[in-house]
Amino acid sequence: MPSGQAAADAAEPRERPCVLRCSGLHKAYGATVALQHADIALSAGKVHALMGENGAGKSTLVRIIAGAVSPGRGEMYLDDRPYRPHSLMDARRIGVATAFQELSLVPNLTVAQNLLLPRLPGSAGLVSARKTFELGGEVLARHGLDRIDPRAEIASLPLADRQRIEITRAIENATRVLILDEPTASLAETDWLFERIRHVTGKGVAVLYISHRLGEVREICTEATVLRNGSSIASVDLSAASDSQIFEMMVGRKVAHKRLPRAVRSERGQQPRLAARQLGGRNLHDISFELRPGEVLGVAALEGQGQQSLFRMLAGLESPSQGQVLVDGQPTKLSGPRAALRTGSGIAYLPEERKTEGILSGLSAATNIVLPIIGGVSRASFLTPRMELRAARDAADKVEMNPRYLDFAIGDLSGGNQQKALIARTLVTGAKTLLLFDPSRGVDVGTKQSIYQAIRAFADGGGSVLFYSSELPEVVQLADRCLVLYGGSIFREFEGDDISEQALVAAMLGHGDAISEEGAMHDRAH
Amino acid sequence: MTERIDASMTGFGRTSTFRGLVTGGGLIVLIYICLYAVYAVQQPKALTASSIAALINNTAPLALAAAGQAIIVISRGFDLSVAGVISICNVVLAVYPLEGPGGAAASVLLCLAIGAVVGAVNGYLVAVLRLQSIAATLATMIICQGIALVILKAPGGYVAEWISYEMTDVLWRVIPVSGLVVGAVVLAWLAIKRSAFGISLYAIGADEASAALSGINTRRVRFGAHVLAGCIYGLAGFMLSAQTATGSPTAGTPLLMLCFAAVALGGTSLSGGKGGVFASVMGAATLTLLQKVLFSSGVSSFYTGMFQGTVLILAVVFSALLARSGEAK
Amino acid sequence: MSGAQESVSAVEPFAQTGDTRTSSKVSRETITTISVAILCVVLLLAARFINPALGSWAQVETVLILGLFLVVLSYGQGLVILTGGLDLSLPAVITLGGILATSWVGSGNPAEWYLLPAVLVVCGLVGLISAIGIVWLRVPPFIMTMAMSIIVLSALLGYTAGTPRGSAPDAAVALMKSHVAGLPTPVLVLIIFSAIGWAFQSRSIYGRYLYAIGTNVEAARNAGVPVTAARILPYVISAICAGFVGIALVGYSSGATLRMGDDYLLPSIAAVVIGGSSILGGRGSFLGTLGGALLLTILGTIISALGLEFGLRTIIEGSIILIALLLLREELFQRLRSIQR
C-alpha cells in the first residue's frame, strides 16, 4: 500500500474509486519476456506516473492497457468489470484512449479529419467537408486550441502543435482512462497540458502519465508505479518519496548524487575549434560564439528557437544565408556531415531523432558505429564483420555499451543502446569537435550516466563538445558554458556556476537582459 | 526540420491555388490544350468531330488503365497486373465473342469480373498477407500473361461486331461513347474521393501506421482499392478490344509503362498520399496526343519513344520542382 | 575527483539492467540463401525423374552457361534494388550492348579489344544518365529507368532502321563457346563473377554504403556516407552488367535483335526477390540472388524440356515467384526465430 496515505487523505477526504486495476500482467514474445509481473491501479481523477528504465517493460505495459497487445497472463478490470480489449479502437470505444509518443496522426489529412477519424460526419456515403470542419473546430475550441485552423494539414503544423492535437484526440476519447506517453517530448512548456490534465481529472478520468522527467512528474502526478526488469517494484505516493528513493527503485541500488564538480578544462588563448560569426539563416540570426578545446558548451532553448537550424548548419546539412562558420580558425563552407568530418580537426554530428535520422536499422551496431571511418577500417576497400567489431570495440567501451550487442542488428537494440552506439560513432571518428543534439533523449537513467561520462571524458581529453538539451538538469550538470537561444539569436550566455536551472529557465523565456554587443558576457544571477 | 513530409496537394488542406491546380489536374489540362493547339495547326482536320472522336477512342484504354493505376499509386503501391488483366480481357473477347447488345453487356460484366478477381487476389496478397505490392502484382501479372497465352497463343480472333462498332461510335454526332465511359469513371471517382473510403485511401498512402492507429481499417481499404482498380482495368481491356477489334495475348504490355507515365505526367506523386484520377486521365490523353503530334510533325515513328521518354522526365521534374517550391519555409 | 569516479562506476553495471533483448544470429539472409540452394538441388534431382536426359552433368553445365546471363543481370538489378530503386532499363541496355557489339565491332575486327570495352562504357553512360536523373533531378527510379528504356530502344530502332545488321564479335563467341581447363568458359566466368560480385556487395566499403543508403538515406548522410556517389554507382554497374549480357547473348546466339532483352527484365527482378532481398532495399545478399537466378534458369530448362507451351510455362514461372514471395514473408522469419530458442 502506498505510504503517506494520511497525506493523501488530507488532500482528498474520501478515497477515489479504482478505475483500472491490473494484476499479474505477463507478456512474452517467443523466449523474450517483455513484462514479467506487473500490477498497477489507477484511481479516478488521479494522475498516476509510470516510471522505469528503457527495457523495464513500460512500453509493453502501456500497449497492453491501451489495447494494442493482449497480455499472456494476468487480468485487468475496468470499473470492476473484466477489461480485455482486442484492439486499440476497441479500447477507445470502451473509453481508454492513448496519446502516443510516436504521434499517430495522418500527415496529409486535416486537423479536423484526424480528430474525428474513424467516424467522419456525412450522409449517403459521402463525407461532409463542412460538418467535418465545424465539428473539428468545436473540438479544438473545447481544448483551448482555437488558434489552430481545423482545415490545416497536419504536415504543415509544427511538431508541438501536432503533439497537442494527438493529446487532444486522446482526451476526447478517454472517458475512463487517459494514457499519455511522453506527452511533453515536443512541448516546450507544460501549461496547456497540465491545464488539460486537471480538466480531465476533474471529470473523474484516471490518467496514466509516462515520462522520464521527474520534475514534471512531481508537478502533475500524485502517485507513481516504478517498473524494473519487467516487474512493478512499488507504487508510491510521490509526496512521500524522494528522488533518490525513486531512482533506487528504478535502478536497483542507491545512485549517488550525480552532480560532479566541474573542472576548469578550457584554456583561454587557444585557437577555438569551432566558431560562428554572425551566422544567420532559417530561424536564426546573428549567432556568434566560440568553442574552445576541452570545453563543453551547452545550448538551452525552448522548442523551435533556432537550435535545430544551428546544429544543422554546423554539420553542413543546411547552408547559412549570412555569416560564417570557422573551423580551427578558418572560414569554411561545409557541404555535409561527411565533409564536416574531414574539415580541420573534424566535426562529428549526432542527429536529433535516432530512429529516423540516426540508426541504420538492418546493419549491425558495429557497422553503424564505424561507418564514417569504414574506409580506414578496411584493407584495400574490403573488410569483414570481425574487423568492424574490433574497430568499434574501443568506442563502445567509452560509452559503456555491452560489447555483446555489437553484432546485433541495431534495430533490435533498446533506444538507450542505440543512442550509445550513435554517440560511440561520433567518438570513433577521431573528430575533435562533437555536435550532439539532445544526446540523452528518450534514454533511461543508467544510460544517461554512461553518456555523460563519455562526454566528460572526451572533453577531459581535449575534445570540444557543443550540445543541445531540452532537460535543464542535464545542461546544468554537463556544461562549462551555456548559450540560451531565444527567437533565433543568442539571448544570454552563462558560465560556470552561473548555470542554474532557474537562471536558464528565465533566459529561455526571454526574461532578463540580453547580451550587450561588446564584452560583458554574463549577468550574475542573484 | 528535414524535408520529410511534403506540404500536401490533395486539395484537402489549405494550399496555394497554383500548386493545387497542378496535382488537381489543372496544369496537365493546360499542357493538353497547348499541345492540341499545336496539333490543330498541323492538321486542320483536327478540330472536326470525327477527328476528336478518333482521338478519344485511342486514348480511352490508356486513360482507364491510368485511372486504375492512380488509385493504387495514391495508396502507395504499384500495380503491374494492369497488363495482365487487359491481356486476358482482350483475348477472352476475341476468342469468345458475344454478339449483339446483350452480348456486349455480358462482355462488360465479364471484363469487370476478370478485373475484380485479379484485383481481389492482389488485394489479398498485399493487404492480408502483407507482400510488397510491386512484387505481388509482378507475380500476378506474369500468371495472367500466361493465362492469356493459353487462351490465345498468337494474335488473332475477332471481337464481337456490336462492341467494336458501338463502343467506338459517336452519340448525337458529337460525343464519343468511349469518352462517356471514361467520363463516367472520373465522375465516380470524384464521388469516391469524398467518401470515407477515398479519404482513407489518401491516408494510408501517406502514413499507413498512423492511419491504422487512427481507426482506419487499412486492410479493407487496400483490398478494396485493388478490387476497384482491377475492375477499371477490366473496363480498359474492354475498350481496348473495341478499339483493336482483334485479340492479342500481349495486348496489355505496352500499356503497362505508359500508364505509369500517364499517372506521373498528371502530377500524382509516386510515393502516395496525393494526386488524382482526373489528372492521370489527362496525362494519358496528353501522351496519346503527343504521339499524334509527333507523327504529323513528320517525326519518324521510330523516334516517338524518345520524345515520350523525354516528356515524361521533364514532366516529373517540373511537378516535383513545383511541389518543393511550396515547401521552402 | 575520486568520489565522482566512484559514483560513476557504481552506476556502470546498471546500464544494462533489465534489457534482456536477444537478436537472432541466423539471419533472414542465411535462411533464404540456404532454402534457395536446396530448392535448386531438389529441382535438378526431380528433373532426372521427369526425363533421364535431364539432371545429367551436361544439363547442369547448360544451366550454368544459360544462367550466366541472368546471374550477371540480376547482380546489377540487385544492387539497384538494394539502394531502394528499380532498374527497368535493363532490356534496352542489353539490346544496346548487343547491337553495338554487332554493328560497331562485328566479327573479325582486330580493334575489338578496345571497342568491346567501349561498348560497355557507352552502356555505363546510359546508367549514369539514369542515375543523374534519379539523384539530381529526383525523378523516381521507376520512372527514370522506364523513360531511359523507351528512349534507348527508340534510338536503336532509328539507328538500325528496324533491322539490326552485323555479326557477333569473335571475343563474344569465344567467351560463350570455348573451354578453359575443361570447364566451359561461361561457367568459369560465372564463378569468378559471383565471387567478386558477392565480395563487393557484402565485404567492401562500397557495399556497406549501398546497404546504408537502402536503409535510410538521411541517416546514411549523417553517418558520413558519400551519398551522392553511392547512389549513382549501382545504376552504372547495372548498366554495364546489362551491356555485358548483351554482348554475351550475341556471342551465344550469333546475332542481335531489337527484342533480345525483353525476356530478361522480369526474371531479373524475380531472381532478386526470390533470393530474399527486400524490394524496398536495405536487405539481401547476392548469394540469395545467385540462387534465385539459377533456380529460374533450371526451371526454364525443365519447362522447355517438358515441351510445355509458352503460356503454361509463364503461368508456372509466375506461380513460383508467388510461392517464393509467400514463403519469404517477414512474419514467418520472426516466428522461425522464436521457435529456435
Structure explained in plain terms:
The complex is a heterotrimer of chains A (526), B (329) and C (341). Chain A is 33% helix and 24% strand. Chain A has 526 residues and is α/β, with parallel strands linked by helices. Among the domains of chain A are: 16-251, P-loop containing nucleotide triphosphate hydrolases (Rossmann fold), CATH 3.40.50; 357-430, no CATH class. Chain B has a two-stranded antiparallel sheet. In chain B, a hairpin with a 3-residue loop joins strand 1 and strand 2 (175-176). In chain B, helix 4 (82-95) packs antiparallel against helix 5 (100-128), helix 5 (100-128) packs antiparallel against helix 6 and helix 5 (100-128) runs antiparallel to helix 11. The longest helix of chain B has 29 residues, at 100-128. The radius of gyration of chain B is 19 Å and the shape is globular. The model of chain B is unreliable at 1-15 (pLDDT under 50). With 341 residues, chain C is an all-alpha fold. The interface between A and C is large, with 70 and 46 residues.
Q: Helix and strand succession of chain C?
A: HHHHHHHEEHHHHHHHH
List the strand order in the largest sheet of chain A: 6-9-10-3-11-12
Largest interface: A-C, 70 and 46 residues
Rg of chain C over CA atoms, rounded to whole Å, is: 23 Å
Q: Distance between the terminal alpha carbons of chain C, to the nearest Å?
A: 46 Å
Major sheet of chain A, described briefly?
6 strands, mixed
List its traits:
heterotrimer, A: alpha/beta, Rossmann fold, 6-stranded mixed beta sheet, globular, disordered N terminus, disordered C terminus, B: about 325 residues, ABC transporter involved in vitamin B12 uptake, BtuC, 14 helices
Could you give a quick summary of the protein structure above?
Chain B is mainly α and 329 residues long.
Ordered list of secondary-structure elements with their pairings:
The complex is a heterotrimer of chains A (526), B (329) and C (341).
Chain A (H helix, E strand, L loop, with lengths): L4 H7 L6 E12 L2 E12 L3 E6 L5 H9 L6 E6 L2 E2 L5 H7 L1 E4 L11 H6 L5 E2 L2 E2 L1 H14 L16 H15 L3 E5 L9 H12 L3 E5 L3 H7 L2 E6 L2 E7 L5 H9 L22 E8 L2 E8 L4 E6 L5 H9 L6 E6 L2 E3 L4 H6 L4 E4 L3 H5 L6 H6 L3 H4 L7 H14 L16 H14 L4 E5 L7 H16 L3 E5 L3 H7 L2 E6 L2 E7 L5 H8 L18
Parallel strand pairs in A: 3-10, 3-11, 6-9, 9-10, 15-20, 15-21, 18-19, 19-20
Antiparallel strand pairs in A: 1-2, 1-4, 4-5, 7-8, 11-12, 13-14, 13-16, 16-17, 21-22
Helix pairs in contact in A: 15-16, 16-17
Chain B lengths: L16 H8 L1 H17 L6 H26 L7 H14 L4 H29 L4 H19 L9 H6 L3 E2 L3 E2 H17 L2 H11 L1 H6 L4 H27 L8 H13 L11 H20 L7 H22 L4
Antiparallel strand pairs in B: 1-2
Helix pairs in contact in B: 2-13, 3-8, 3-11, 3-12, 3-13, 4-5, 4-6, 4-11, 4-12, 5-6, 5-11, 9-11, 12-13, 12-14
Chain C lengths: L1 H10 L16 H23 L6 H26 L7 H16 L6 H24 L5 H20 L9 H8 L1 E2 L2 E2 H19 L1 H11 L1 H6 L4 H27 L11 H10 L11 H20 L4 H18 L2 H11 L1
